[in-house]
From TrEMBL:
Annotated gene: tbp
A matching Pfam family: TBP
GO terms for biological process, alphabetical: DNA-templated transcription initiation
One GO MF term: DNA-binding transcription factor activity
Protein's name according to its UniProt entry: TATA-box-binding protein
Family according to the record: Belongs to the TBP family.
Sequence-type repeats, residues: 28-104
Keywords: DNA-binding, Repeat, Transcription, Transcription regulation
Keyword Metal-binding: no
Protein purpose: General factor that plays a role in the activation of archaeal genes transcribed by RNA polymerase. Binds specifically to the TATA box promoter element which lies close to the position of transcription initiation.
Amino acid sequence: MIALHWTGCDLSMSDHEEINDPKETLEIQNVVASTVVSQELNLESVAMDLEGADFDRDKFPGVVYRVQDPHAVALIFRSGKIVCTGAGSVPAVHEALEIVFETLSDLGIDVSENPNTEVQNIVTSGDLGERLNLNAIAIGLGLEDVEYEPEQFPGLVYRLDEPDVVALLFGTGKTVIVGGKVPADAEAATEVIVSKLTDLGLFR
């Protein structure tokens, strides 16, 4: 089950203004990307040399390095893998990783000229503009694609095939799209959701 606090989004109830196109409400909350440097790292040494880095092997197996501008957190592992999270856009996550690459290179670590960076997850929030009957939606969409256990989690989890993302729907009309690889995935998912709910007579 996907925990509510993982989303980092404001899902509180609010008075809806009229929303003609829910896609216009979409806002990226977090971008997670991964990359790798071409050597195994001595994390103790990296943590000592990186100003502001944290490393406690008993709590987490990697160095936690915070980039201030753009705001992001790089998780650096002994294998050379780096995961960057907390960026607010795809360009920002690439910019943050460039800063990490430059910093590591200055420490004498071998960083290739053009490291391959892969976006793993884009978390996007949105608003459909009206309250939703989650019980009816769970029945209408079918149990094979839906998880809805309100005593465990206040949202409905809807797994889409195309695009390959997971949508969290809340009774307030708020949505969270997770698992996107490009920003357009959230737009496509919102179109699918609106179309499905409209066909079921559960929207507008």
